[in-house]
Specification:
Residues 19-385 form the ABC-2 type transporter transmembrane domain. The protein is mainly α. The chain has helices spanning 2-16, 19-36, 38-46, 66-75, 87-95, 126-146, 151-158, 175-212, 215-222, 225-257, 264-269, 274-300, 308-329, 336-341, 348-358, 363-391, 401-413, and strands spanning 54-58, 79-83, 101-107, 113-119. It folds into 2 domains: 2-36 and 175-413, no CATH class; 51-158, 3-Layer(aba) Sandwich (D-Maltodextrin-Binding Protein, domain 2), CATH 3.40.190.10. A 4-stranded mixed β-sheet has the order 2-1-3-4, with helices on both faces. Helix 4 crosses helix 6 (126-146) and helix 15 (348-358) packs antiparallel against helix 16 (363-391). The protein is elongated, with a radius of gyration of 31 Å.
């Protein structure tokens, strides 16, 4: 058992001190901080130079529409001023930087307002969009007045319809709970997806690297291959847990720092049911053990690190399919294909958790999904240990199924 922990902690600390691990942790933590502060980031972008712009409104004939447009624009948050200068003078002053932008208002053939927005650069669409909205509002009001339509009646026509969604069942989730579930499901799906790609590849590369350097031959003589396999799996698992603890801590602190701001992330992240978090951890753990065992076995079949991607690619494609099914399931969690795939071990960690988060499932369905995963992991461990035992002693080109048969044959001889 001591040798098991020696390999486990050697794997853990070696990867923990690697530049790739430190860099990926820092980058992910920065992304989490960015997501937690997304509202402030948007505000920072919006509080740039365009927010301080003053739009000069020019109407050469009279100011019938200018004052109305200016008032409407001000209500939308755009600072305006009405000027008597000519369009040519406004263009010259704008090109010289004296004016931020100007709006030329005229009366169309139908007697309704038309406008042209001019600025040195129109790359930022925020202010032009708001000015277009202001002109459109004034045009609608002018047209309504011409037709004798009362303004209150016009407001009633354009008022948004009152439409709410309510579930009849007492056990069904509310819209707020569904939004929280979507947030967590999305997060877990992304976590599992990248965990399989990163940690699975890491395990396979670790095994292949030892075979390439012939260290494996020395290890096999002192430690059983089965102990090696599980020591590496749990060593990388400990590494993953460490990384996610750091990232989650950063996320929690970031959300806590925004407490009371009323932002979107605070609304979603706070009040998530504790039961859902437990399910998230359980399915993540089951998914990791399932895919990590397969990755370790596949890594034992190759002789060089360059060949790892060849054997890992099919597993990666399976994870991509699971990811796509989960994304589809967010909008249709009760779909038959979602129900069926949630009981297939390759898809269960993502798809079953999706159903748990979005629907009120019977306990037996969740238990059945977890049970199938547990049984699959045990079977994979038993079969995988035999393949791994023979695979670590194999050298040569990868030939998939033949390699597995050969590894099993070598394993029998080594008994």
């Amino acid at each position: 058992m001591n040798k098991f922990f020696i390999i486990l902690f050697h794997t853990f600390f070696t990867k923990l001190k690697s530049r790739s691990f430190i860099l990926s942790t820092i980058i992910t933590a920065v992304i989490v901080v960015g997501i937690a502060n997304i509202d402030r980031i948007f505000e920072a972008f919006e509080s740039g130079s365009d927010r301080d712009q003053v739009v000069t409104i020019i109407e050469e004939r009279d100011r019938e529409f200018s004052s109305l447009i200016a008032a409407e624009a001000e209500s939308l948050g755009v600072e305006t001023e009405i000027s008597d200068m000519s369009e040519e003078e406004a263009e010259n002053r704008t090109s010289q930087g004296e004016l931020d932008a100007f709006l030329v208002v005229s009366e169309g053939a139908d007697g309704l307002p038309e406008a042209v927005y001019k600025a040195r650069s129109i790359a930022n669409e925020r202010v032009p969009s708001l000015m277009r909205q202001a002109v459109q509002t004034v045009k609608v009001q002018a047209a309504a007045a011409r037709l004798g339509i009362d303004e209150s009646a016009l407001d009633a026509v354009y008022a948004p319809v009152t439409f709410e969604t309510e579930a009849v069942s007492d056990t069904a989730r509310s819209q707020e709970e569904l939004n929280q579930a979507r947030f967590l499901v999305n997060a877990l799906v992304v976590v599992i997806y990248f965990s399989v790609l990163a940690y699975g590849n890491m395990i396979a590369m670790e095994v292949a690297a030892e075979k390439t350097s012939r260290v494996m031959e020395i290890l096999v003589s002192s430690v059983s291959p089965v102990k090696q396999m599980f020591a590496k799996i749990f060593g990388i698992a400990l590494l993953g847990i460490t990384q996610y603890v750091v990232i989650i801590t950063v996320g929690v602190l970031s959300v806590a720092g925004n407490a009371g701001s009323g932002g979107y992330t605070e609304e979603i992240a706070t009040g998530i049911p504790s039961g859902l978090l437990v399910y998230a951890f359980v399915f993540f753990l089951l998914g990791y053990l399932f895919y990590a065992t397969i990755s370790a076995v596949l890594g034992s079949l190759v002789s060089r690190t360059e060949e790892v991607n060849i054997v890992i690619t099919p597993l990666t494609l399976v994870v991509v399919v699971a990811f796509l099914i989960s994304m589809f399931g967010l909008n249709a969690p009760d779909s038959p294909i979602i129900t069926i795939t949630s009981f297939i071990p390759f898809f269960t960690p993502m798809v079953m958790f999706l159903r748990v988060g979005m629907l009120e499932l019977p306990v037996w369905e969740v238990a059945a999904g977890m049970g199938l995963m547990a049984v699959s992991i045990v079977l994979l461990a038993l079969i995988g240990a035999r393949i791994y035992k023979g695979g670590v002693l194999m050298y040569g080109k990868v030939s998939s199924i033949k390699d597995i048969r050969q590894a099993l044959a070598i394993s029998k001889k080594e008994r």
